[in-house]
Amino acid sequence: MTKFASLAAVTLAATVSMVAPTAAQAQAATGPGTPYNFFSGATGSGTFGNNGGLVGTFTNVFTFIVTSRGVLAADFSNAASSNNGLTDIDFTSATLTGNGGTFSFTKLVGEPLALTELWGVTPLNVTPGTYTLTVTGRSFGTPATYAGNFNIGAVPEPATWAMMMVGVGAVGGALRRRKRVSVSFA
């Protein structure tokens, strides 16, 4: 295994363990084998996924009610092994619809290099409203699980952009007016 491949495996393992809720949370929320969604419109972040009952072809639908505009960053991944044997999920598609737009997730890492797949959407600007994420795929082996993040970050205000542009202009102007000093070596 190359250094890059081992680093990627460590990163994926960290991603899966960070986004997945505890088994107790998932069981208490929905019972085994059903989707869960812990998104909070107030904080603009949360997790979603399926807690371990996926067998065969599946379609999971998640609804997110966004309460303020911002930049969306979302991803999801599966766990490639379990205590009872090998599990594998082949995701076939993931689309986000809402406020007149449809956005597709793409596979960032996965087969044929690894059983773990990581899918994400390019960060995009979203406005308040209802968004629906549909994830489809097929699970092989023992019942499988996956988890993801859905986060809305703040968009800088126009005044912040203006202040930044004035600052960059001031630095550029100061550099242009700077007296040039020539140095010669004998």
List keywords for this structure.
single chain, 186 residues, alpha+beta, Jelly Rolls, 9-stranded antiparallel sheet, disordered N terminus
Brief characterization of the structure:
The protein has helices at residues 3-19, 23-30, 158-177; strands spanning 35-37, 45-66, 70-78, 81-82, 85-98, 101-104, 106-109, 118-126, 129-153.
How is this structure best described in words?
This protein has 186 residues and is of the alpha+beta class. The protein has one domain: Sandwich (Jelly Rolls), CATH 2.60.120. The chain contains three helices and nine strands, in the order ααβββββββββα. The termini are far apart. Mean pLDDT is 73; it is low at 1-32.
Decide which structural class fits the backbone.
Answer: alpha+beta
Low-confidence parts lasting 5 or more residues at pLDDT below 50? 1-32
Number of discrete domains: 1
| CATH-assigned fold name | Jelly Rolls
Quaternary state of this entry equals single chain
What is the count of helical runs? Answer: 3
Rounded to an integer in angstroms, the radius of gyration calculated over CA atoms is 22 Å
Give the rounded overall mean pLDDT: 73
Q: Mind telling me which CATH architecture this is?
A: Sandwich
Number of strands: 9
The coarse silhouette is elongated
Spatial gap, N to C terminus = 55 Å
Helix content: 10-25%
Strand content: over 45%
Q: Main β-sheet, in a few words?
A: 9 strands, antiparallel
Question: What is the class in the CATH system?
Answer: Mainly Beta
Protein name: PEP-CTERM sorting domain-containing protein
Signal peptide: 1-28
Keywords: Signal
Domain Ice-binding protein C-terminal: 154-178
